[in-house]
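Much of what follows relies on a compact textual record of a protein's fold. The record below shows the convention in full:
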Amino acid sequence: MNRIPSLKLFNRALKFKDRTSIINYPNNSTQRYTYNDLLNESQSIANILNYKKKDLEQERIAYFFGQNFDYVRSQWGIWAAGGTAVPLAISHPIHELQYTIENSKSSMILTNSENYSKMKEIGTKLNIPVIELPKVGEYTTTATQFNPTEQYKQYSIDSNRNALIIYTSGTTSRPKGVVTTHANIEAQIQTLVDYWKWTEKDHILEVLPLHHVHGVINVVSCALWSGAICEMMPKFDCKQVIDRLLESGITSDLEQPISLFMAVPTIYSKLIKYVNETITDPTERLAIESAFKRLRLMVSGSSALPESVRNEFQKISGQVLLERYGMTEIGMALSNPLNVDQRIGGTVGFPLPGVQIKIQSEPNNNINNNNEVGELLVKGPQVFKEYFEKKEATKEAFDEDGWFKTGDIVEKDLSTGRLKILGRSSVDIIKRGGFKISALEIEREILDMDSNIQECAILGIPNDEYGQDIGAIIVYKKGKKPMTFEEFKTNCKVRLAHYKVPNKFLVLENEIPKNAMSKVNKKELLKLFS
């Protein structure tokens, strides 16, 4: 008899049976897996994990796979076995991987033959077993295969159990393990599926690393909840993405072409750069624009989207990117509307359904009667349970009424309710001579000021007299001549109040260093000025 956990994600998968769930790019024709395949494979992995005990009882299991079907069947297998999934970043060095495994107290590591030796080295150091998963189909016996015509036996897994531990980027301290329950995840998924109108007719191209909520929840989990197709690229590559979009709906995927794409601002910047520097034939550029236009939705998040990137991407694609706001601890909280005409650049829209917010204003911190400024606080069923084995850090993350303190400063337009992110209170709000200044605002103005600038980061640099200086790190587009510091300041003064003009200046040749999620760690960048 078929067995299945009582979790909603699994029960929904039963509805979609022989529909395609996961495609491994570039093996689109040979590595296509149905929802039945996913249920079969996850149950086989659960059987391996439950060899000694029928229920892992929230035991942490680390897993190390690239962006492919192996990743998904392992995650679902851990859940089906009653365990807590701990995804490992494929791009991290051994030192960071070891920290995640040790800190989460994972009892074993799942991986494939390609990565077994690397994981075995860590497993030996930590004295925990490393399991090399069999190839798809090798362990799937008749007894574990789902037969859609037969009844299935449901076994109970409480939705309030721990489901996932995702580690923060560690921009302000050592990475912390964010524990979410199955109920938290279901709330996060349901909100996005409803608001962005996911259906089983959707087909998303997945290019994001899968150790972060953006890829794990917004892309993969939302797709599988909806019965959609999730096509997984091993890593982001400009040419591969554009070539894939060019063929989808024209020479391939005729019945279900790619309809969704979600990424971080850095990826959109790279796509702009690739098209502008590589594609010179007008006919080819028009074909690329048409390929992007065939998508029904393109989303940007995880960091602020510069207005210049938003506008330039619209020029080459015809797409108005939907900006949203979320974080590991809360999933997605704010989003611009799905209706293109209601999206406003530089803002993150409104609270998503089911998400409660309030703004913790500071005295005298209102810009004027039409705007409220303060730290964003969030409540709702999507908010995480705790930081793993960090009671004090968990307690400090919430106020006395149970609101999660995001650490992000927002500006709310009181006439419309629309919100804008001003930045992290710790690194993006610069306190200079009595003024509180948004680093993100300055970054946006600098990028709009000179089209030759590829990237910009604004930092608060300690200063005994004024509290903080404002430092600007600039990267120019290939072949473009940098401004002198004096020219830079003169141009800034045209667009910015005098107290917002950077008084430190650094030009880098290549790109601003980023972490595995393509985010800038401003505390690390401060060292460049020392």
User: Anything to note?
Assistant: The CA atoms of residues 44 and 306 lie 46 Å apart. The mean pLDDT is 90.
